[in-house]
Amino acid sequence: MTSFFFNLDRWKKRIIIMLLDLLLIPFAIWVSFALRLGTWNPPLNDGIWMLGLAPLIVLPIFVRLGLYRAVIRFIGGQQAVMAVLKGVTLSIMILALIAVLADWQGIPRSIFLIYWGTAFLFIGGSRYLIRLIYARHYLKSEKAHIIIYGAGEAGIQLANALVRNEDYRAVAYIDDNPTLNKAIIQGLQVYKPSQLSNLIKKMQVSQVFLAMPNISKARKREILQFLEPLPLHVLTIPNVSELISGERRIDEVREIEVDELLGREPVEPDQELLSSCIENKVVMVTGAGGSIGSELCRQIIHLNPRQLILFEASEFALYSIENELLTLLQAAAIELPKAYLIPVLGSVQNQKRLEEIMQRYKVNTVYHAAAYKHVPLVEHNPLEGILNNTFGTLYAALAAKNTKVRHFVLISTDKAVRPTNVMGASKRMAELVLQALAQHTSQTIFSMVRFGNVLGSSGSVVPLFRKQIQAGGPITITHPDIIRYFMTIPEAALLVIQAGALARGGEVFLLDMGEPVKIVDLAKRMVHLSGFNIKDEQNPDGNIELKFTGLRPGEKLYEELLIDSQADKTAHPKIFKAHENYLFWQDLEPILDDLLQACQQRNLARIQAILETQVSGFKGSLDVQANLLKKSVSTSSTSTTHSNVTLLVSR
Prior knowledge:
By secondary structure, the chain is of the alpha/beta class. The chain contains 25 helices and 23 strands. Helix 12 links the parallel strand 8 (about 280-285) and strand 9. Mean pLDDT is about 80; it is low at about 625-645 and about 645-650.
């Protein structure tokens, strides 16, 4: 019966509600007389006129107030109550005026006050009853039941927004504020967190929405740890800045980000360090379309550079980051000078192109983020990794030196420390290049910033795990004991900018990565907070299986930031300075010549020997036969693209 009513056309529902009011209004008058006179068979006298006139007065008033245009199942809140209250009050005033003018007899004055209460009760109560029936029965199988964690202002706004949501129905609040325990807010009761496990079964809850945008990351991490063992899919509302800007609505819930799981509190950036190398300067970012390069660009545009040059080898990546930055600038209402963003296609392996751009635009600061960073891919393509990472850095640094760029900052990696792979070794060689060049008298200040994995980067496990969870598993992990450091991309980019400003020449800066995270534990937490269980021998009925595939070529169980065991503090609490051995340029130059020649000749055995000799702790292995079968760069193209290192330096 209820399904039949709620599935009717809206105009049919309106007619039914109007007919119901035609019955309830006279009934309210009769009940008023019965209550006043103390009998269920009261003498109405001239009150009989009220029975007939009241519906004719009330219905037009309700129509005028829009009460029949309201969707009954969404009634609730102050607006609906006030509409019924206004309609009943106005009708009473009109009836009382008619009674005086018509000189009706036998009607006690208190009847009008009693009728005001009974009419409001019957009219408002009928709507609430319909809504309650809809919520209890019709919605039960139609919407997912959710609990809102946080009964503050954000939680109440979320509950109101979900009333009109087609997918979710809020059934309760959870809040750890003892003063709110058992309170009723917007028809929903507030429970203590300790009661949540019982509510899940009692109310058939499948999801929890976190509605606490102002709490600290540490507090959010505590709450997530509490929710993790429960069979719930945990989502959260957008952050405060997104809500204030109007970018997101409060009911646009999202998945929990991994940085929220880690609970890492960012340090307030030093504005003087941020602006030192950027404000009113021409800044160039190589690899501008990559994970780190693009985030550097997003941060830089808010620091008032005179110009920002986007240097990128991928046409699509360059197109994407330019359009994104233009959109961000328009949204921030930043007035742009002419030719503010300069998109440049080019390879860091082309020194002439780099010098041409740096000279033309008189570049002051270069953030060198262009690199091949995927360990297994570089392991299978070692020549390309060395040419791009080591020699690409060399050519970019020489171009900066020759065009008198003031600051040159290399984005390095923790994989450069005692590397077991070609990618890490190629980045350590790049560091040695800058350390050697920094010993020369030059107007260019060379520095390096070394850090670990960033969340959400193109090589991060997090988006991979999320995709595998959505597909029903399995989650693939290389080794049960593998450990990694994690940092958000925005935090890493801000620290890179500040570290570059601290440089005086040749420093290797380290970023504080916080506590290391066991990848298997991270995967389990993501599974649990998605509302699933791990499938294993102890729980064969679980949802998501963890599959261990073995370490990939060149992969380590854990990464390090220091080659030696000592690092100095700097003016920034999350930036440290390493003490690393380096070579003077006259010693490094012939080594680079030898390495370049080995690359041109595709002599992997010679490359292996050079890396083992020059890169401290290198334990990688270039499989000569396998890599020769994977010729990614022909000998002829390599030899025409790269020239002798000595000649390049002498220019």
